[in-house]
Amino acid sequence: MPGSRPNRGSNSRPCRWTLAPLVLAAGLAGCPATGPGVVAGAGGEGPVPVPSATIEVGRDDVVRGEGGFSEVFLTVMPDNLALVRERRSAELPEGVAAVAYADVVDTVLPESTRVRFTPDGGSPQDVSVLEQRYRYDLISPSRLLELSLGASVHVRWTQPETGAARFLDGVIESTAGGLFLRTPDGTYTVGAPPGGGAHVRTVLDALPGALFSRPQLDWLVDVSDGGPGVLETSYLASGFTWEADYVLTATEDFARADLIGWVTLRNQTGARFDDAHLAVVAGDVHRASPPMEAAERFMDYDGVPDMPMGGTIGYVEEGLFEYHLYKLPRPTTLPAYSWKQVTFLERDDVPVTTKYRALVNLPDAAYGAPAGTDDFTPAGVRRVLTLENREEVDGLGVPLPAGTARVYARSGEDLFFIDSTAVLDTPREEPLDVDAGGAPFLVVKSKLTDSQEADAGGFGSYSVTHHLVSMVNRGSRAVTLVLRLARPGAAYPGYGADWDARLDRERGASGPSIEEVGSGVWEVELELSPDVETTEELVLRVRRAY
C-alpha cells in the first residue's frame, strides 16, 4: 500500500536496486527508504515536542460511503481550479504526532490545506497543524541517478553482435547527457561503450535519500482528543477544467426540439478519483482572494442529491452565493490525464420560438458611405432559436452554464448538422438564444439615401442621415424578422458612448416600435409574408461631443 513503512530491523538484508532505461526493474516493497523527517524544533515559543511515531494515512484508508460513493469530493471550478476534499480513516494519538498523508494531487496548493479530525463517537475538531511539508521528489530512473552522484553503480549490457553479457562497475561522476563513471582502475567512461548496447541495465546498491511514488504532505499536528476516527483533508489544486456542451435537435419546422446538456471534465493531473462525489461550479471564482477563503466557500456540501435537475438523470443544481453548484447524484471515476463527459440535462420535445435576425449598419458620409445612389449593402441574416427556460413552459427554469451549442435538424428520416455556436451563462427563468445557421431565403439590404453634417464648434458636431432598408421573404411561409440597427462605431465597446443618438422613421411612416437595446443599437421586429417586399425608411440623428 502506498505510504507503508519499510522494515528497518538490524537484521534486514541490504537491497539492490535495478533500473532499466525507463522502468524500475525491481519493486520497492520491503527495501529501505528514508521516511518523512521529524522536526525537533520550530518557530514560536520553545521547541516543538518530538513525536514518538509517524502515522501514515494513504489512499487505501479512504472511507466508503453510501450509494457506491467513496468519501472523496472533487469540485471543479472555473479558471483551472478544483477543491479536493476526502475522508480517510486514521488513528491519531492524543498530543503531538507526525502524519504522512500520502497520495495527494501533484498540483496541490499546500497553503490552502485544511485538516479536521473526528474521533469515533466524538465531535469534529480542527487539528492544530504545527508544521507542514510538501514532498514531491518522485521516484524515476533519472532522478535516482541524479541523487546517486558519488555512489557505486553496476552496469550490465548485451553486445549486439555477439549477444554476450558485459559488465562495468564504477562511481557515478555525472548524469548530464548520460551516465559518466569513474571505474576502479582510475579511468572514466560512459555507462555503455561507444555505439551503445542492447538491454542496458543499471543496478544501484542503495536508494539515495527520500523518494516517493506519489506526492505526499507531512504534518506535525497537535490533537486534543485522539484515538481511531476520520481524518478529513481539504485543499485546492490546479489542473482541472470543465465546460458545458449542448446538443439541440430541432424538428423540420423548428417549432420543437430535444435538448441534451453535457459537462466535459478534464483532469490534467496524475491523480485518480475512484467512485467519487463529483461537482462543478458555474460562475467567476475570484482568484485574488486568499486560496483558503475560496476553498471554504465550497467545502461544506455533502454530495447527497436532494433536488434532481432533469429527473433521475443529471446534476443536482443549487444556488451558492453568486455561483451555481451542479452535483452528480451517482459515483464517478475520473482517471488521471483524462476527459470525461456526463449528462447534466435532458429534455425531449421542448417548445422553441424561431426568429431571424439581420444586422444592419447605419453609416454616414464621414465613413465613406455613398449617399443618394442605387448601391445597396446586403445584410447577413441568421436563424435564432429561443428556449423560454421557464418550468411552466418547457420544464426547464434552471441556470444554464456558458458553453457550446450544436444544432441538428430533422427532415423526414434524415438528420442534418446546422450550426455550432457559443452560448452565454443564462440565469434561471431567462430565455436561452441559440444561433442556428443562416437564412438565404431572406434578402435584407440597406443604403444611405442622404447625409447632412453640421459643425457645432467646440461643442462637437451634429449629423442627420437617412436610410432605406429593403426586406423580402422568398420562403414558403411567413417568418419573424428582427432588424438590429447600429450607428457608426457601435460595434466597438466604448466608442461613441457619450454621443447622443436617436433613430426614428421618416415623417409620416408607421410600423412596429423601434426599441433601443444598447448604446447606439436598436431593434425592430417585423412579420414578413412570402414574396412581399417590405421597406423601412429611417432617420438617424447623432450629436457628437468633443
Descriptive notes:
With 546 residues, the chain is mainly β. Among the domains are: 152-204, no CATH class; 353-388 and 431-544, no CATH class. It has 3 helices and 35 strands. The protein has helices at 141-146, 291-296, 391-394; strands spanning 17-19, 54-57, 72-77, 81-92, 95-102, 114-119, 125-126, 128-135, 152-158, 165-174, 180-182, 188-190, 198-204, 216-223, 227-238, 240-250, 256-267, 273-282, 316-320, 323-327, 332-334, 338-351, 353-361, 377-379, 381-387, 403-411, 414-423, 432-438, 442-455, 461-473, 479-486, 500-505, 515-518, 521-528, 534-544. The strands form 6 sheets. Strands 3, 4, 6, 7, 15, 18, 19, 20 and 21 form a 9-stranded mixed beta sheet that branches. Strands 1-13-9-10-11-12 form a 6-stranded antiparallel beta sheet. The chain starts with 16 loop residues before the first strand and ends with a strand.
Give the helix/strand layout.
Blueprint: E1 17-19, E2 54-57, E3 72-77, E4 81-92, E5 95-102, E6 114-119, E7 125-126, E8 128-135, H1 141-146, E9 152-158, E10 165-174, E11 180-182, E12 188-190, E13 198-204, E14 216-223, E15 227-238, E16 240-250, E17 256-267, E18 273-282, H2 291-296, E19 316-320, E20 323-327, E21 332-334, E22 338-351, E23 353-361, E24 377-379, E25 381-387, H3 391-394, E26 403-411, E27 414-423, E28 432-438, E29 442-455, E30 461-473, E31 479-486, E32 500-505, E33 515-518, E34 521-528, E35 534-544
Parallel strand pairs: 2-5, 3-18, 16-26, 23-31
Antiparallel strand pairs: 1-13, 3-4, 4-15, 5-14, 6-7, 6-15, 8-14, 9-10, 9-13, 10-11, 11-12, 16-17, 17-22, 18-20, 18-21, 19-20, 23-25, 24-29, 25-28, 26-27, 29-30, 30-35, 31-34, 32-35, 33-34
